[in-house]
Amino acid sequence: MKTKSSDLLVNAAGKLLQQHAFDHLSDEKLSRMNRCISKLNQSSLLIDRNHVESELLELCCEANLYVETATPQVLQQWMTVMNSFGKQYTGTAESILEQVD
């Protein structure tokens, strides 16, 4: 069963991928990220969702949030994901958004 947090994570990861926030990652990590997204999108699969979510969240934490292409909307979405998983960004949303503007 999909959870709202899982949906938010998959959506944010996809948006960050589109906005080149993971261009610095190795092909192996990008492949793992895509596999996690695929597994979470296939609700019929009997998988350990918590394990896959944790792996994807760990990989997403390596995002370069300061790329020029990152929009304020996706940054706010990422903050929401972090909060929904009980994680905290060490900076502030304003500091990230200032870098984008």
Describe it:
- The protein has 101 residues and is mainly alpha-helical.
- The N and C termini lie far apart (38 Å).
- The chain contains 5 helices and no strands.
- The protein has one domain.
- The C terminus is likely disordered.
- Helix 1 packs parallel to helix 3 and helix 4 packs antiparallel against helix 5.
Question: Could you list some keywords that capture this structure?
Answer:
101 residues; mainly alpha; 5 helices
Shape assignment: globular
Structural class: mainly alpha
Per DSSP E runs of 2 or more residues, the count of β-strands stands at 0
Radius of gyration: 13 Å
Number of domains: 1
The N- and C-terminal alpha carbons lie at a distance of 38 Å
Helix content: 55-70%
Write the layout of secondary structure elements.
Layout (H helix, E strand, L loop, with lengths): L3 H15 L8 H15 L7 H12 L11 H13 L8 H8 L1
Helix pairs in contact: 1-2, 1-3, 1-4, 2-3, 4-5
Short description:
The chain is an all-alpha fold and 101 residues long.
